Amino acid sequence: MTTDTRRIADDSTLVGFICTAVLRLRAWLAASWLVRTTGTSTNALEVATDTSGVAGIIRTLVRWTHHSLCYRWLTKEPEPEVIVIDLRDTYTVGPFIALFHRISPVVQRTWHGSLVARVTERLCTAVRQGWITESKTVHLLRSVLEPPKPPEDRRE
């Protein structure tokens, strides 16, 4: 601030009011029971997490995960000679990806309201319940599609 601006701000009633309000708010917060309790609870929580057995197990699991070969392989920096191509930016694949992203919500809504979805759901439920696996048609299909038994070895 320039000297003139600072002098005007110091003489301003509004600036004086705001400064007084901020000072009173700071004093109120310093004397507040809620702030003291929160500070005490935060300290107690830090001590509890430092000495907790569950927290120790979690820290150990996190340490093991960070030092695991799989995690290091997934998070390592790519080698400088490796070129990464974002297929969304290519002329050949990019339009198909954009089209897929655009029509997938419509296809999803259409699928959920379709007869095919209801029939598929009923068939899946029937398979889970087991009554389809015991039908005559399924037994016939199974016997037709079952591969033949291998020939027996007759070296006697």
For this entry, give a set of tags.
mainly alpha
Describe the structure.
- With 156 residues, the chain is mostly helical.
- It has a domain at 85-146.
- Helix content is 72%, strand content 0%.
- It has 8 helices and no strands.
- The protein has helices at 3-11, 13-31, 33-51, 53-67, 69-75, 94-112, 115-129, 136-145.
- This is Transposase.
- It comes from Halorussus aquaticus.
Rounded to an integer, what's the Rg over CA atoms? 35 Å
Largest sheet: none
List segments where confidence is low: pLDDT < 50 over at least 5 consecutive residues.
Answer: none
Relative strand content: under 5%
Describe, in short, the structure shown:
This is Transposase. Helices cover 72% and strands 0% of the residues.
Indicate the topology.
Blueprint (H helix, E strand, L loop, with lengths): L2 H9 L1 H19 L1 H19 L1 H15 L1 H7 L18 H19 L2 H15 L6 H10 L11
